Predict the structure.
Amino acid sequence: MSASESQSASKSKLASSKKSAGKTNDKKGSLVKVVVLEDVGKWISPQAGEKLFLSVAPALPEVIFQIDCDAAGPFVWEWSMQWGAKVSGLREKLPRGVLLKTFKLSGKTTTDKPKWRLDLNGDVLGGVLTVQIVVDRNQYKRSVHICGKNPEKSEILAYLSSFSDSSGYEKIIEKETKAKHFLDIDGEPVVAFDNGYGLTQLTNPAPSYHQAWNWKENIKAGISLYAACRQRAKKMLDAHLPYSEEMLTNETYARWNGGGYYGWDVKANKWVLRVNILCDSSTGNIGWNMVDPENSGKTEADLRDRDKDVYRLGKKGQDDEHRWQYSGICYADHLRNADE
């Protein structure tokens, strides 16, 4: 073989090893997420850059990584999963916003044959999965995308019913994400600008990679936080009896959002609203402290017209001219009135 033929063959082999390294969608008008993935060696399955889906159960996709190799075992496979969590909100729109965090997990396993059935030590994760192995000094590397699918609302409610302390939590899930864990457009979890993840918008403590992707683990962690809010609310209200179940629910909802609902009025000898707040009925948790001179005497419409354009800025939109605030009281009222 001549030098030029050898060079041509080498280029052809390299092109073959990189086949499908970058995936695009040629469907007219579609939104495309292009990620260049490194691919090395001759593989039987899966396809390079293939898009695989978690089951709604949820469980990892049934996929076998298999190299074209006649060598004897054992075979040591190294895998790494990575997902860059970018802000999405609930909008089915790409591209997403800023990158908030990169989740990573890796591991290795050994098989007797040159194939490995996907198993991440019991974790249900998504993102870019890269699998690599070295056999007789030959390197093999393949990357695929693993995406998620949303469960039906009936499946979410059925899972919630398995928890004894979940009463009322379905309203929080509906309020936070409309019972959506993944964006359908890219199969990745919903991510809020304030670092809220998935169905229950886990924020603090920050969720693990597993909790961000596995919708059941997301709910389980959320239920634990909700139960803690309810326990603290009950402990507070128990100091001055009696109180109603509705009051306990209001205090629990408010604490979930990061504030309280009631305060004890010594003179009146009863529980009263913690703050004299007027809620913006067009939002879920925004209101105005009506003791503030800048707000006093104004109607809800007046205050909304003044401040609505800066809501999108979050706390950066709260200044001397725009005296609005996030309110646990408004959050609780919104949830309580959701069915009315």
